[in-house]
Specification:
Layout (H helix, E strand, L loop, with lengths): L8 H10 L12 H6 L13 E13 L4 E12 L5 E6 L2 E8 L2 E2 L3 E2 L8 E6 L6 E8 L6 E4 L11 E4 L19 E9 L5 E4 L12 E11 L5 E4 L2 E4 L4 E5 L1 H10 L3 H12 L7 E5 L8 E2 L4 E4 L12 H8 L7 E3 L5 H20 L1 H25 L21 H18 L1 H14 L3 E3 L1 H11 L3 H7 L1 H6 L13 H16 L5 H4 L4 H9 L7 H11 L7 H13 L6 H10 L3 H13 L3 H11 L5 H11 L4
Parallel strand pairs: 1-11, 16-17, 17-19, 20-21
Antiparallel strand pairs: 1-2, 2-8, 3-7, 4-5, 4-8, 6-7, 9-10, 10-14, 11-13, 12-14, 15-16, 18-19
The structure holds ligand BES and zinc ion (ZN).
Length: 626
């Protein structure tokens, strides 16, 4: 690495200050930048010869200025010959850098729209500690600072982080690659009447002075660094599980997640002991851009799963499953993302089956299968290469890889293996896989080698068509079939309604779960007309559903058919919920129905409340500029 590619400390500061509002224009990456990156992970500047092993983080959370001011004291491990250590940062203001207590020069690479900047710090081979004093910028994409009005109780502000995939670097200078793990401890100061929580050991009560200490003795990659600060309280569910939520949502949340302990037990019975101590959950404000995030010890969850009837708790099973698939055995790069998510959907299904029975879990699998086929058909037109399990995200935002493919194609690939070799052999294999690779990373190629060695005969490998599943586009035609008797009854009721106009009887629909409703709504034919939609809405109050999944599903056929009665509900939904999984299809439906103006009007109101992650996707979708 030539010195010319980096600017010395003093100049670097100047560059940092002009990247506070980094331009969103696409910049091509210079060859030097390419070379700076590891061969392994195209989304990090970190190099193999100098890696972090522990973080001591001391931070002040300043709600007035919407900034975190902190020092990251990193313990490092170097290989002989190491001359520099590289960190990833995004819109951080670096104040000073110390190596083993001595002030040091440092250098920054040019700003890249996805990667941010590489921070290069010269070290000697024997260096042990690097301290980085910094504060976060206005464009800290991991952070969402909420005003009281954006929370359930409207009384206190709220802050939460979302580090996956490569956003941790916007609130901590870190080696932001899933292949680099570290333990951490932290001391965080927040306003006196608020609680701070992290992906670590957590308080159960408010502290007197707003100061909180955290320990994370198990090593994690930086995408699992997380923090939430708000007016939240804790309620225990069992000795080792519980829920944090704003006071007005605490009881509702504890009711919704009452089966948490059962789920942990079911998971442990399948694939071995839970490795992280406690398993708690925090219910975040509705702008949280995901359904859930598997932050170790403390899953972050959207309030849109508080359905009142526990019908959406498969999301909790999913995040819990990540405690093995993802958090214990971690995808080496974001190209291997299916190793995290496909395994997790498979494991989620198994937990749901263990706790609620096969008939129930097969309804979920059936919905997943239909969703996968629809998504894959659309993607084959627009971005066929992203329908491969093994992705190629170099030079792109890893967020582009977050589609149904790693999740649901991944799931059905694993299910096909289970069906081919039998459950007993497959479970044995998975248990050994998790135990044998815990706290390690996995590439797709290593997994395939392990699979050949430990599970599949050559014949089985060929019969499953493993390489086609992993490396080719589309969905192979040996996709497992899902049979659900309960859904067959729904199909019959729908067919009769479409043929004769006879509404499904209330004795029948009263026994329908959320999943039967979803299947019913998703199966409505494109030819359904306004009169039929009106009849269904009048009979079952679908536009008034308090269940977020049912609402989002119902928006599809109604928006497509121009059923205007649903528009106010669409608007209130889109302006109160920031979960991307719901936003994308709903805005798409509006565009598809030539309601571009309505979509843009709603978006103009809603956008300030969305998290950067959702905003980025919706800006693209709606061609939004400033
Ligand atoms: N780890 C993901 C969320 C994620 C993925 C965030 C990639 C950023 C980048 C989480 O476990 C997840 O999959 N959430 C889903 C839950 C669903 C599949 C049950 C979600 O948010 O919808
Ligand atoms: Zn997941």
């Amino acid at each position: 690495m030539s010195m010319r590619s980096f600017l010395p400390g003093i100049l670097a500061l100047a560059i940092v200050s002009c990247t506070n509002n980094p331009s969103k224009e696409k910049q091509t990456m210079s060859p030097t930048e390419e070379a700076m990156k590891t061969g392994q992970d195209p989304h990090s500047y970190a190099k193999a010869d100098a890696k972090v092993s522990h973080l001591n983080w001391i931070a002040d959370v300043d709600f007035d200025n919407k900034k975190i001011k902190a020092v990251a004291n990193w313990t490092i491990e170097t290989q002989s010959g190491a001359t520099d250590i590289y960190f990833d940062i995004y819109d951080l203001q670096i104040d000073s850098v110390l190596v083993d207590g001595a002030n040091t020069n440092y250098a920054l690479s040019p700003f890249d729209e996805h990667l941010g900047q590489g921070l290069r710090i010269p070290i000697s081979e024997s260096a042990k500690q690097v301290s980085i004093y910094y504060s976060t910028g206005d464009d800290a994409r991991a952070l969402q600072w909420l005003d009281p009005g954006q929370t359930a109780d409207k009384s206190h502000p709220f802050l939460f982080t979302q580090s996956q995939a490569i956003l941790a670097r916007s609130w901590v200078p870190t080696q932001d690659s899933p292949g680099i793990r570290f333990t951490y401890d932290a001391k965080v100061n927040v306003p006196k009447d608020m609680m701070a929580l992290m992906s670590a050991s957590n308080p159960m009560e408010l502290s007197d002075d707003g100061s909180y200490k955290f320990e994370m003795p198990q090593a994690i990659p930086s995408y699992l660094l997380a923090m939430a600060v708000g007016n939240v309280r804790f309620e225990a569910i069992s000795d080792r599980t519980g829920v944090y939520a704003e006071p007005s949502l605490l009881d509702t949340s504890a009711y919704e997640f009452a089966d948490l302990e059962k789920m942990v037990q079911a998971a442990e019975a399948l694939y071995g002991p839970y490795a992280w101590g406690r398993y708690d959950l925090i219910v975040l404000p509705p702008s949280f851009p995901f359904g859930g995030m598997e932050n170790p010890r403390l899953t972050f969850a959207t309030p849109t799963i508080l359905a009142g009837d526990r019908s959406l708790v498969s999301l909790v099973a999913h995040e819990l499953a990540h405690s093995w698939s993802g958090n214990l055995v971690t995808n080496a790069t974001w190209d291997d993302f299916w190793l995290n998510e496909g395994f997790t959907v498979y494991f989620e299904q198994r937990i749901m089956e263990a706790v609620y029975g096969r008939e129930y879990s097969e309804m979920l699998a059936s919905l997943t299968r239909a969703g996968l086929l629809e998504a894959a058909a659309e993607m084959l037109e627009e971005m066929p290469n992203d329908t491969k399990l093994k992705l190629d995200l170099e030079g792109r935002n890893p967020d582009d890889g977050v589609t149904s493919i790693p999740y649901d194609k991944g799931y059905f690939f694993l299910r096909l293996m289970e069906e081919t070799v039998g459950r007993e052999r497959f479970d044995d294999f998975l248990k050994n896989y998790f135990q044998g690779h815990k706290f390690q990373v996995m590439t797709t190629e290593e997994f395939l080698a392990y699979l050949k060695e430990n599970l599949l005969s050559e014949e089985e490998y060929a019969q499953i068509r493993v390489d086609e599943w992993i490396y080719e586009t589309g969905i192979p035609d040996n996709l497992p079939v899902v049979e659900s008797d309960r859904f067959k009854k729904v199909d019959a009721a729908l067919a009769s309604f479409m043929e004769t106009g006879k509404l499904p009887a209330s004795e029948q629909t009263e026994a329908w779960t959320t999943h039967e409703w979803l299947h019913f709504i998703n199966s409505l034919p494109e030819t359904i007309n306004l009169e039929q939609l009106t009849a269904l809405d009048e009979a079952y109050g679908l536009s008034q559903s308090g269940n977020s999944e049912i609402s989002a599903a119902w928006f599809q056929p109604t928006i497509a058919a121009g059923y205007e009665a649903v528009y106010p509900k669409v608007e209130s939904f889109l302006t109160s919920v920031g979960r991307r999984k719901f936003l994308t299809p709903t805005y798409k439906a509006l565009l598809g129905a030539k309601q571009d103006q309505l979509a843009r009007d709603i978006y103009a109101k809603a956008r300030p409340n969305y998290h950067a992650v959702s905003r980025e996707t919706m800006d693209d979708l709606l061609g939004w500029e400033g």
